[in-house]
């Protein structure tokens, strides 16, 4: 679960973290580019995610950093003009895995 916060990232944008406060963790599809004009998204659709509480957009950032010899790319929230780094592509990995995650979620405390 992603959460937008009032803390600043390395590049001075709003920090995105995995805190589980439900109030801050609600995201909505601000807009999407679907090839089938339906009310749902499918693989390869492009979406923009907006945090419901802070009204900020989730952005993939060019800033990379290393932790324990692994490279990561910064992801931030912003309230600036929407650009190409704000688009996220839906990728369906495994429907059985998704079903499994949904089924076990009721057992996680």
Element layout with pairings:
Layout lengths: L2 E6 L5 E4 L9 E7 L12 E6 L5 E11 L2 E9 L9 E2 L5 H10 L5
Antiparallel strand pairs: 1-2, 2-6, 3-4, 4-7, 5-6
Q: How many DSSP helices?
A: 1
* Morphology: globular
- This entry's quaternary arrangement is single chain
- Taking all Cα atoms into account, the compactness measure Rg is 15 Å
Number of strands: 7
Portion of residues in beta strands equals 35-45%
Query: Quick check: average pLDDT?
Result: 72
Structural notes for this entry:
The protein has one helix at 95-104; strands at 3-8, 14-17, 27-33, 46-51, 57-67, 70-78, 88-89. The two termini are 15 Å apart. It has one domain. By secondary structure, it is mostly beta strands. The chain has a four-stranded antiparallel beta sheet with strand order 1-2-6-5, with no helix packed on it. Strands 3-4-7 form a three-stranded antiparallel beta sheet, with no helix packed on it. The model is unreliable at 104-109 (pLDDT under 50).
